Amino acid sequence: GDWVVAIGNPFGLGGTVTAAIISARGRDINAGPYDDFLQTDASINRGNSGGPMFNIDGEVIGINTAIFSPTGGSVGIGFAIPATAAKPVIDQLIKHGQVRRGWLGVHIQAVTDEIAETLGLKEASGALVASVIKDGPAEQAKIEAGDVILEFDGKKITEMRRLPRMVADTEVGKSVPVIVWRNSKKVTLAAKVGELAETKQEVAAKTSGPARESGERAVEALGLKLSSITPKVAEKYSLGKTAKGVVVTKVDDAGPAAEKGIRAGDVIVEVSQEEVTSPDDIAKKVADAKKAGRKSVLLLLEGQGGLRFVAIRISKS
To answer: What does pTM read for this prediction?
Structure first.
């Protein structure tokens, strides 16, 4: 609702001023991992990018950046980088001559209501660690896959997408407290923030281990048919030599697993944060969850998109 003025150089016309109001803060437009835009209906056309956005007190509150438009011209939705996000970048350029972003070394995902329930969290907040990068700051800080990062450097993680911005804006080399949710309780750890290299390939390391030969088995409560990793199965689904876990061979289209996008060829690495090596392991853990009165189980999956956690409701059948 606050009035703003955007100044730029659209279409090569020279200094041009447009006025409008702010309609949103913290807007994510999928432009990158650090999205935190101010949304405005000021006309921001081609050539406005890089121009200042002022409030009515004459203070620069943002830098004109982007528009949503089917034609390339303004349709009343423009975006600006907040001045608070730009200032640390400016300071780094003055101090170091380049931008250095903090790096924690984790792959994260959002905490859904179902995941929160399976982990014993009262609300769906924080960032769930899907995997930890080998030899990264998180591994050195003893952060583990399955942890939910609740606070970073004293700031609460209300939603997953806030963590990358917090880490990126943290001074490289700084030691910060990290509070995680692990085994139904809070654990405080200390992490020394590393420097993000633009070419860094964040690939989670797999561990090898022998697979038990137990053939296929249907776990109807999940709507899945599963198999241990045998040479034949590994070849069929193009699994690596170090693949570990249980392979999904068939998904019931009407089952709970299908709702979560699980498909044949995905590998279940863990159930309820414990490793599994056979379909029997998974069937037992699902049965145990039913007896305990839990409505869903948490799976750690290895698929085409890498490691991810998925909470699947347990069918009553």
So the answer is: 0.61
